[in-house]
Amino acid sequence: MKYLKKILRFAVPYKKFAWLNIISNVFYALFGTLAFVSLMPMLKVLFDNSEKITQEPQWEGVFKIGDYFEKFMNFYINQKIDNIGEMNTLLIMISVVISTFLLKNFFGYLAMYFITFLRNGVLKDLRNEVYEKTIDLPVSFYSEKRKGDTMARISSDVLEIQNSFLSVLELIVREPLTILFTIITMFIISVKLTIFVFIFIPVSGLIISRIGKTLKKHSDKVQREQGFFLSIVDETLGGLKIIKGFNAEKIFSSKFKESTQRYFKYSNTLLNRQNLASPLSEFLGIVVISILLLYGGSMVLVEKTLAPEFFIAYMGLAYNILTPAKAISKASYGVKKGNAAAERVLEILETESAIKDAPDAIVKEGFTTGVDIENISFKYEDEWVLQDFTLKVPKGHTVALVGQSGSGKSTIANLVTRFYDVNKGDIKIDGVSVKGMTQQSLRGLLGLVTQDSILFNDTVKGNLKVAKENATDEEIIDALKIANAWEFVKDLPNGIDTNIGDSGGKLSGGQKQRLSIARAVLKNPPIMILDEATSALDTESERLVQDALEKMMKNRTSIVIAHRLSTIQNADTIVVLSKGKIVEQGKHHELLSNKGVYYSLVEMQSLA
Questions:
Q1: Can you tell me the distance from the alpha carbon of 107 to that of 32, in angstroms, rounded to the nearest whole number?
Q2: Which CATH code of 3.40.50.300, 3.90.550.10, 1.25.40.10, 3.40.50.720 fits the domain covering 369-445+527-537+555-608?
Q3: What is the pLDDT of residue 354?
Q4: CATH superfamily of 453-524
Q5: If I label 489, which of 60, 79, 152, 525 is the partner at 20 to 30 A Cα–Cα?
Q6: Cβ atoms of 355 and 418 closer than 8 Å
Q7: Strands in 468-533 per DSSP E
């Protein structure tokens, strides 16, 4: 139940609906009990079994409430029969029965009506918070987690919380009150018979609770396996060309089938245990009812201590306990199942982000002097990717980082943007540590074009507006022109309003990259980070984009991570990295004349 308490904080904004639900449930439980009580006068008229009482009975205290109720009923029925006749009295009694059942169901509907707003509201807010937390957590968090597992938590796990935990809110008032009102009425009718009934209820409750103990463990397995096969689906769709190109369909199909087989096995175990709750509780209830029939029947037929109509109504009341008892039993299974889902959702919500704004973080709005990378060291896991790395990038300068794969070039981009934090040293902008400013203001100063063209299933306009939400169509078209993307965008069916498909799948690699560059151009930031921005372009596109980039980077501070060395020959400074350290630094012609590592890299590319 500890997880239920944490989830219930999401219900606070909807407490109005909770109170309306509680009030409706109080009346539902009350009229649900009165519906069976109202049968007794009707049965008395039918059986002509009412004692002839001509004077209204006197109240003799709460302990004789049963006798008082019976005498008052006999008095009222006799009065009515004398005044309007037996058939008319019977019609009144039947009307009372219909009215109580109508009111019971009316308030039952109202209760469900109000709880719907609460349940769906909590579902909405919980999903929103999980999504916001998903965005807030650092990039490093998802390098260790499967995307499919996160998707499962935000979809099926949150839905499971609604179906299990929040369904308990419907039962938390209605069913206990129904049982309470029913039991009070049963005591009024016969204390002796009610005590006899309650000898057997704890026994059946103990049997049912034993079955539910293993549900959380099995539910956790089901949800984890669902996250696993969703990850396989995500990887399959993302790498479909590779899978088909290498004829690897059988490998991935086999992995998926193994996962769904495990899901099949875990789900069967879980559902079979869960499905046992209802029939078992009903069977145990019928056993109690049968014993009640035997004992109560002897009170009616042998001892003559209970009137037949009272016993029939009492049996209806006893059966009236079964439905809420079954619902509570089923809900207890749901809570155990929901516990596992809540645990997985709360794991994300309660994960502390490794990269957080400092309490005194400033909002950095302008850029005046430059970027200083001061003696930084960084490792993703055990091995150092960068060691004692120092670099100054003055304002208005273009600094290019080159080197072989694994030399730490892209890591520097990740650290400047603060996707990761350095282990040692510091990165400063205008003398202010990136840890001393808000992440939002830091990234507001930066424009980013990555090696992989990250586009969304949206229109051209929608993809560019990620950089500037209030951009006009004219600004978007200007940015496309600078990136040499307008030449193909204008020929699309709907121009900038054309949907480009999932991850820009309707475009070529070069077209996707030019859109990514146009997005950075539209933002117009003072510092531009280009992580192998031209690597996906053909020779013609590269020339066009390189020309556009050079215009854009003029008088702008740029950190360019380059694979194709021909694209960075005009950089103010070229930094050559090897195994996380600077091995050479200078201008293009200076490094060539040194005939060192840079010269070797240029030679290799020219031969290629």
A1: 10
A2: 3.40.50.300
A3: 79
A4: P-loop containing nucleotide triphosphate hydrolases (3.40.50.300)
A5: 525
A6: yes
A7: 527-531
